[in-house]
Every structure is written in structure tokens, then in C-alpha cells.
Amino acid sequence: MQLPKTPKTPPVIQMLNWIFRPMPYMEDCTKRYGDIFALKLQKDLPPLVFVSNPQDQQQILSHDTKELEAPGDLNDLFEGLLGKRSVITISGAEHQRQRQLLMPPLHGERMRGYSEIINDITAKVISEYQIGESLNIRTVTQAITLRVIMQAVFGLYEGVRAKKLQQLLGETLENGSSVWLVALLYFPALQRDFGPIKIWGKQEQLQQQTDQLIYEEIQERREHPDPSRTDILNLLMDARDAEGQPMTDVELRDELMTLLVAGHETTATAIAWAMYWIHKLPQVKKKLLEELDSLGHDPDPNTVFKLPYLNAVCSETLRIYPVGILTFPRRVKTPITVGGYELAPGTPVVGSIYLTHQREDLYPEPKQFKPERFLERQFSPYEYLPFGGGARRCIGLAFAQWEMKLAIAKLLTMRELELVNHQEVKPQRRGLVTGPDHPIQMVVKSQRSVQSPTLQTSSV
Description:
Elements: H1 11-20, H2 22-33, E1 36-39, E2 48-51, H3 54-62, E3 68-69, H4 79-82, H5 92-102, H6 108-112, H7 115-127, E4 134-136, H8 137-153, H9 160-176, H10 179-186, H11 199-223, H12 232-238, H13 249-280, H14 282-293, H15 301-305, H16 308-320, E5 330-332, E6 336-338, E7 341-343, E8 348-351, H17 353-357, H18 373-376, H19 397-414, E9 415-419, E10 427-430, E11 433-436, E12 441-447
Parallel strand pairs: 2-8
Antiparallel strand pairs: 1-2, 3-5, 4-12, 5-8, 6-7, 9-12, 10-11
Helix pairs in contact: 1-2, 1-10, 7-8, 7-19, 8-13, 9-11, 11-13, 13-14, 13-16, 13-19
């Protein structure tokens, strides 16, 4: 049986490389071993096989479940934050049930109904910065996406619980983004405090306080139901599965945390990256503003969403530095050949989104930001997969794309921004996902002029 090649270094060295420099490490491995390689991250577990060729991606993401499965236990790194009943940490019939309950509020007219929330919050957040004031654009986008989550998902606009929950959620995610906390996730024996170093204990305390507020909100909704509310929490509480059963409080809590992590942290990073590239490359900014300004006053959000160059900019943003660099892993059930290698039962296999997006044969000059790629050709779901693929494709894909496009359009049409310096920003690990390796500092130059109309939301 021919197995994929793996580095000769001890598992602990491979693990440390994976934790602290995942993207350079994957690129090093693919240059040395090719499209398919394995990392031995723990002595007592099988090597984790990485694939990046689109044909191999298609095979592992869409293959018959008799040969490959996507068990939730391979995602147990997420369990501490998301819980045991999240759509990410369960599998099989349970996973299918949860996805079916979650889908309706995140698609179609329901999803488009959140346009006013997105536009209003974006306008309020950027208006807090005065002309001449400098800002970290990721701080701005985090404020936008967290407030959107609070209103669209939790249905909370103001009040003591809303403010406290927003504060705790922000702190929980910021603490969870530490690369040192990720190291603790991979080394369970270290999941404790060490004297004054209380990374793990602080995260547990924040999580407990957050959970208490979420359960209080769920309990209050159950005691005082309001059918007129259209936030996602209310819709999920009303949802019923094929057997007529609702979600339990634990399931609701875990799915709310899943939507928060998937819909706040990742979208904030994607919008920040887009703003960086738009302002780093004058020709991109000029072309995008011309497209946005051509809509005139009060364009319909659906029209904004369908703008071809805006879509190309967002697509290239998610290609060059995808926030999620891996698909969710699969496990081999019966012997299968992938990329010329025979994989034994029990072998975990993962698709490298990052490596696929960096392929020279798909994306010439892959390190260059070129939105035109997405105007010149259409890529298959296995050549371009920023939201993963198959049965585990990100459930919030439509909502994330909607929010990303509307927020970028609103920011660009309300304020003239400029990068403080053009120092290159690179991606690095940020928790279990990625983000910029240093703050993207910008300055507010002016309000946009009258001939460049501010976007307003029409009723949808």
C-alpha cells in the first residue's frame, strides 16, 4: 500500500509548524511532496492527509458515504466554543436534521430582509469616525458584523442583556483567536492555568458567562413568545423537524454560537481584507467606485449584490487569503485511492482550500490580487471553495456574501478612506481560522461627495 509522503521531522515539530505557520508549512510540503501529502501531528493517531488538486477535492467532498464519511468527532477542536450539539460537531442523521432546521432563516427572502440592518449598522459604525481620524479597519468591520449578529440573529437592539452579551461575545472571540489557545486545543494536557498565565481559565469563564446570558434569553422567549419577531433565534425556536420536534435549549445555544463564530469573526476578516486590497490598488478602487456610483441614489440591495465587479473583488478577496484554509475533514471507511495513493480505513483526509486557491495552473500569478479572474472565467466548486464543499459546506454562505457586499458598498460610498501606509499585510493563524498579521491602519480623508451617492436600503 503506497501512502502519501510525510515530513521526516518528529510529530511534535510537525504540530508546532502546523499551529504557528500553517500556510507557509502547507506550501513547503506541497513543493516538496506534490498535490497530496500527510502530516503526522500526533504519535498515537493516523497521519492527516492533505489534498489540493481539484479532482481530489471533488473526490473527498462528494464521494459515496460508503467510502468516506464526515464525522463530527473530527471537528472536536470546535467543541469547547460551539458545544457538542453544533451542526459542525455532530454527524449523520443528526447533522442532516440540524442543517434542515437552520437553512430557511439563512436563505431567500428571509436573508434579504436583513439588508436594512446591515446598511444601517455599517453607516452608524463608520459615522463614529471623524474626518482625519485614523482607524484599524478590522476593528470597524468587527463592530459591524457583531452588531449585525446581535440584531439579525439574536434580535437584540438595546438593553442591559444586549450590551453585556455583545461585550462578552466580543471578548470570547478575541480571546479565542489567540494562537496560544489553539496550541492548548491541540495539547489537551496543557488545558489549565499556569500561575499568572490564565489563557484557558479566562476562556472558560467568558464562555460560562456568555452561555448564561444566552440561556436566559432563550428562557425569556419561551415564557413570552412573540410571533411578530423575525430574528433568526425566533425562527429557530419555531422550527420543527420531520417528527414535529423543536430544537432543545442546548441545540439552540450551540447553533447560536455556531452562527456567531461563522458569521461574525470570519465575515469581519473578509471585509477587512477587501478594504485593504481596494485601497492598496488604486485601479481596483477606481473601477469599483465607478460601478457603485453608476447606481445613483437609493439602489436596491439586490442590485448591489449582483454588481459584477463588486462580486469579482469579493471573490478574489476570499481566494487569495481564505479565512478558512481547510475543508472539514473526512474519514476513510473502506480502502480508497486518492491522487494515486491508497488510503486505509480510519485515515483522516482534508482539503486544503488555501493550496487550491494558490495553484498556478488555476490562478496565474496567484499571489497577485486580480479581480478580473472572476470576470474572465467561472471556476468549479472544487477549484474555488472559500466556504468549503459537499455536505459540510458553510451553512451561512449566502448571509456572509450578502453582508460582505452590502457593507463594502456602504463603507466606500459614505467615506473616502486611505491606507496609512502601504506595508504588505500577510495572513497568519487567528484561532482556528486566519487573519491579517498586523493591523490595517486607515485614515478618514473626507465624506464622499454628493455626486457619489450614499447607498440607502429600499424595503425588501
